[in-house]
Design a protein that fits this description.
The chain contains eight helices and 16 strands. By secondary structure, the protein is an alpha+beta fold. Strands 7, 8, 9, 10, 11, 12, 13, 14, 15 and 16 form a ten-stranded mixed β-sheet that branches.
């Protein structure tokens, strides 16, 4: 039985319960983070911390984040994940328990803090080299996608689309523009130019996204952050998704149409190798 953290206690998961009056349960009133760990070392924790702080500030939830790094590390240890090649810690903070009304509680309440850890099984390199497929989905999410909130129903419905259609991932499309995936980011390669949607309220500021942009520059690729029409996306030489647990995920077809030559491309492969090297350094740093 795994150990989780709930409101100041490390307890067995089957003993973790929250109130039915919790605003996260009733309204999706909260934020979350998923932080990867390589050989027990949190990957770019400072960036996750900054994003969580920004989300809490935007939602006007007051909570001291300073103890969370140590709690993350303790969860990894208590779940025997310090030597796991890739693991992760999920963090969720809601506004807390209060009488059900849309407006904020009239008196301050303690936020609900829930965390759990698990091991990520990276696909074999052989499976990765086969590539993955995506389908397009109309984007109906709210207009503050830059906040990592727990209001994820459109993402849930979007993530079901490839299951129903025999694909692996999705590309959200809004106003004719290719935006991102349901739980990851979208990159397109045109020659030696790597293109991704610019930061705005339309996408979440991704940690892996920022790391890959830095690695791409180190490898000498030109990077552009701009909006890409769907029609242009289909002319890309390569496409890949990225995310905390997606890492770098090559996309060889969208809506049944091959991307480039329909195979994993050299730029995607080079970035994945650079990302793996970076995570190995992170794992050795401990």
């Amino acid at each position: 039985m795994s150990t989780v953290y709930l409101n100041g206690e490390f307890i067995p998961k089957d003993q973790a319960f929250i109130s039915v009056d919790d605003r996260g349960f009733l309204f999706g009133d909260g934020i979350y983070e998923v932080t990867a760990a390589y050989k027990g070392q949190l990957y770019h924790w400072d960036r996750h911390l900054a994003r969580a702080s920004r989300g809490l500030k935007a939602l006007r939830i007051e909570f001291d984040l300073s103890p969370l790094e140590e709690i993350h590390n303790q969860l990894l240890e208590k779940n025997d994940l310090l030597e796991a090649p890739v693991s992760y810690v999920y963090l969720q903070i809601t506004r807390g328990v209060a009488k059900r009304t849309h407006k904020f509680p009239p008196n301050p309440v303690e936020p609900t803090v829930y965390m759990f850890a698990g091991e990520y099984q990276r696909p074999s390199r052989e499976r990765w080299e086969e590539g993955y497929t995506s389908v397009t989905v109309h984007d109906v999410r709210w207009l503050r996608r830059d906040l990592k909130t727990i209001q994820l129903l459109p993402n849930v419905l979007g993530a079901q689309a490839p299951v129903d259609q025999g694909a692996d991932e999705i590309v959200f499309v809004q106003d004719g523009m290719a935006i991102e995936g349901s739980h990851n980011y979208l990159f397109m390669v045109f020659g030696d130019v790597i293109v991704t949607h610019p930061l705005s309220n339309q996408i979440l500021g991704g940690i892996t996204r920022s790391v890959l942009l830095e690695l791409a520059a180190d490898l000498g690729y030109q990077v552009q952050e701009r909006c890409v029409p769907l029609e242009e996306m289909f002319t890309a030489d390569e496409i890949f998704h990225s995310g905390t647990l997606s890492e770098v995920k090559p996309c060889i077809a969208v809506d049944g149409k091959p991307i480039g030559n329909g195979k994993v491309g050299p730029v995607t492969r080079a970035l994945f190798d650079a990302f793996l090297a970076d995570t190995e350094r992170a794992g050795r740093s401990g």
